[in-house]
Each structure stands twice: as structure tokens, then as C-alpha cells.
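PROTEIN–LIGAND DATA SHEET

This sheet pairs a single protein chain with one bound small molecule, nicotinamide-adenine-dinucleotide, given as SMILES. Inputs appear in the order they were entered. The predicted three-dimensional arrangement of chain and ligand is reported afterwards as a C-alpha cell string under its own label.
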Amino acid sequence: MAEELFKNRAAIVTGAGVGIGFEIARQLALQGVSILLNDVSMGLAETAAEQIRSEGGVCKAYACDVGDVEAVRQMVGAAVEAFGQLDITVCNAGLTVWGDFFEYTPEMLERLISVNLRGSYFLAQAAARQMREQGSGGRILFMSSVTGHQSIQYLSGYSMTKAALEMLARNLVVELSPYGITVNCVAPGATVTPRNLADDPNYEAIWGRITPTGRVAFPADIANAALFFLSPAAAQVTGQTLIVDGGWSRISPTPSLDFVEKPKG
Ligand SMILES: NC(=O)c1ccc[n+]([C@@H]2O[C@H](COP(=O)([O-])OP(=O)(O)OC[C@H]3O[C@@H](n4cnc5c(N)ncnc54)[C@H](O)[C@@H]3O)[C@@H](O)[C@H]2O)c1
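PREDICTION REPORTED AS:
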């Protein structure tokens, strides 16, 4: 992707200390975008920002819980203070709370809603207000999941939040298009991140076997799709979701979920 496409732009990427968010932040920075890199953990945010800076990117760490609406509004202010503008916002932070539907508790659902939905909704709102004021358009991206399309056991709450984000993107087209702001979703399938490897050290092999392309996704696969939506080249693409899952959702087999049924220790 030509570097000038992203020149003089500033972005917030949430939940970017590790995993998919980190790789999106890194790739944007390599294209010349100034990054406010968010994580709930200041330690993870700082380490990630330092890594991006060591590769020549402009990146500032910012710690807050995206479920905290006031903190999210302040984060948008901090991005504008640091870079003078905000052009791109990636609402990537999201929790997965596995659990049997019959045993699911209000607390479990509330955690999901706080981070996955309130966190994305009010960040998008704060970012869109800033972009409307700037008057030069913008890009908002929600991180959905293939589970917003296909059912996986024990993910009733999570999949509901991801499907909701996709509807939010479709709905916001009406109110954001007049300002040149696009709003889209990437829906990853099984992707190797530290969290998945902690759940199941054999994650890569197990999911690779049941994915038509013969492998799981890596954060770079998801970041490649994200960068298209975030680029000026995608100005006419809005309200869309791109599933990046190696074709898994066309057949949808599920591996053993032993780690949910028989938790460690
Ligand atoms: N990894 C996958 O297989 C996969 C598949 C589909 C969708 N997704 C979605 O992609 C996104 C990123 O997934 P991942 O596996 O890279 O993430 P992850 O679970 O590894 O978390 C990434 C970072 O988010 C941070 N975080 C957690 N709660 C936060 C909060 N409240 N505020 C700010 N930061 C917070 C964590 O500290 C962590 O550093 C999530 O929305 C996830 O639902 C991931």
C-alpha cells in the first residue's frame, strides 16, 4: 500500500498491547500514521509503543479501560493534543467470556457488554464528534468476529456482542456518511494471539486442521484487511464486514472445547 495514502494521519487503536490490535497499530505506524496505542494495562501499552517506535513509528502509549466512557472521551482528547487531529479509530479491544448458557451470570454478560459494546460505541461516538469538527472525514473500524456469523458453543454472549457491532456499523452509515466518515468491521476467524495460546497451547495446529486454507490466521492477516478499510482508497466502502477466517465459516467445524468444560486447576 503506497505510503502517501496514510500520510499526516493520526489514529487510536484500542486493546493494542498485544495481538491483533498491536499488529494493526504497528502496520499503520509503518505507513506513517501517528498512533495513540491504548491498552487497559499501562505496562503492555508502553512496551508495545516502544516496540513500534524502535521500528521508526510515531506512537504514544495510553492506558485506560475502554468500558469507562469518561476515560474514552479523555483518550480522544489526548490523541488530538498529541497529534493535532484524529483521522482513524480502531475499536479493537474486546473480551471473550466463555461459558455454558445455562450457567451464564449477569456479571459475565455485563463484562462483555462493558468492553465489547459500551467500549466500542462511545469511542466511536467521541471519535466521530472529533472527525465531524475537523471536517475532513475519517475512518472507524470495529473488531467483530466470525462468531457473530456462525455459532460456537459457550459463546452466546460474546457472539451476540460481535453481531451487534456489525449492526452498529451498518446503522451508523446513515449518520456518519454526510461527514465523510466510513464505519466498517473486520471479523476474524481463529487467529493466533497470546490469549488463544494461553487457553490452548495447541491452538494453531487444532484450528489449522479444520480451516479450509489449512492454517489459522495470524494478526498480520487481520491487519491487512483492516488497513484496506482504514485507507483513503476505501472511501466508498462503508457499513461492511469482511470475514478473515481462511474459509472456516463456509463449513464451521468446531474442535474440542475441553478447556471450557474442564478448566485448569
Ligand atoms: N484472536 C482471535 O482469534 C480473535 C477472533 C475473532 C475476533 N477477535 C477479536 O479481535 C480483538 C483482539 O483480539 P486479540 O485476541 O488480539 O485480543 P487479546 O485478548 O489478546 O487482547 C488484546 C489486548 O486488549 C487489552 N484489553 C482487554 N480489555 C481491555 C479494556 N477494557 N480496555 C482496553 N484494553 C483492553 C488486553 O490487555 C490485551 O493486551 C478482540 O475484539 C477480539 O474479540 C479475536
